[in-house]
Amino acid sequence: MARPLTVIGLMSGTSLDGVDAAVLRTDGVQVQEHGPSLSLSYEPALRQRARALLDRAASLSGDDPELRAIERAITLRHVEAVQSLRKQVGAVDLIGFHGQTIHHAPARHRTWQIGDAALLSHETNLPVVHDFRTADVEAGGEGAPLAPWYHAALLHDARRPVAVLNIGGVANVTFIGQDGQIVACDTGPGNALLDDWAFRHTGMACDLNGALARAGVVNRAVLEQLMAAPYFSRPAPKSLDRLTFIKALEAVSGCSAPDGAATLTAFTVAAIACTRLPEKPATWFVCGGGRHNPALMEGLRLTLEAPVETVENLGWNGDALEAECFAFLAVRALKALPLSAPGITGAPDFRSGGRLTCAGLSPIPTWIRPGGLDA
Ligand SMILES: Nc1ncnc2c1ncn2[C@@H]1O[C@H](COP(=O)(O)OP(=O)(O)OP(=O)(O)O)[C@@H](O)[C@H]1O
Ligand SMILES: CC(=O)N[C@H]1[C@@H]2OC[C@@H](O2)[C@@H](O)[C@@H]1O[C@H](C)C(=O)O
Predict the structure, then answer these.
(1) Domains delineated in the chain
(2) Which ligand has the nearest atom to the CA of 115?
(3) Quick one: average pLDDT of 333-340?
(4) In the structure, which protein residues have their CB atom closer than 6 angstroms to any atom of ligand 1?
(5) Proportion of the chain in helix, strand, coil states, percent, rounded to 5
(6) Entry pTM
(7) Residue 351 has pLDDT above 90, yes or no
């Protein structure tokens, strides 16, 4: 077996709440060791600027000054996360840097994650693998979700069929059948619409502990209207932009703040429940920030007709999983192992992806050269 690397994975998710960072020791096939993790939030003002940027992202040029300023601020927060983890673990070989998705349109072969990999490499003196999704969408894939590679590596001895459900800004599922078949897709909204609604009505960044939703009543007519979107009858693979269902906020605009929150929470749950899977999972294991929302978890338990647990019951850390995932995928990218597969992202064949930046390194270490990792 090739030497495992100590990698810091970094994820800035669609909730725009901050950077999740985690250390993983891995050879890109198996996980040798889980290290420490942390989350660094963005200042509310930066979060709001990033949120406003998403509304313009489809027509934005790469040299837009506001985009560049946000990209730099976000990257420097990632630098802080890396330096803080390094104090805890010592030597690190590599960074897997997802960046912040500001636009995702796989039908137009476009996906855009901002983040200055060269600056990150320069500030940390570490090699950085980034831009994980472009090769896949250019080949005709969905570009997301990529987490199934990591979930499958961790789930090797779990009871099947099993589902891992990530409820971030957008929600996505990885299903593994009894025969090992993987089905994965974005299910629909996660917390993003609810975050926007809560911010509009309470000034809070999210519906903390589901308090607003729990005080409200689901508007069934609106929910039915939302669930009529063609996305929900499409089979996997399929993926979403954070803004795909943004019109849901207009649909609930006539509701009181609690009823709107209850309806948006029910929308996330209904979208998950209607996802077409080949078999009913024996258990749904939930990760991502949504598992901290009791209204969401309660809705899932009532609707899914199967046990719903958090990934902590598998011994995983549900707040660090995506960051760990991009540490894992960074090593896969470096070894030219697949990040795309027809059954996962819908790419026409198995192919690798990601790009390597060594802007901060001179000389470049020998292990990073082609074939060096397996030597
Ligand atoms: N106690 C809580 N009550 C309600 N919601 C919560 C709570 N804690 C976290 N959340 C929700 O979780 C979100 C953050 O989740 P997470 O960190 O998984 O998102 P992300 O990494 O941005 O998402 P993605 O998977 O889309 O990349 C917050 O924006 C909030 O909506
Ligand atoms: C384009 C993009 O950034 N997609 C994210 C987002 O956040 C959740 C969901 O939508 C998922 O598809 C993906 O992230 C995870 C890590 C993935 O690729 O598996």
Answers:
(1) 5-142+320-368 (3.30.420.40), 148-314 (3.30.420.40)
(2) 2
(3) 96
(4) 11, 13-15, 17, 20, 166, 168-170, 190-191, 195, 206-210, 288-290, 292-293, 322
(5) 40, 20, 40
(6) 0.97
(7) yes
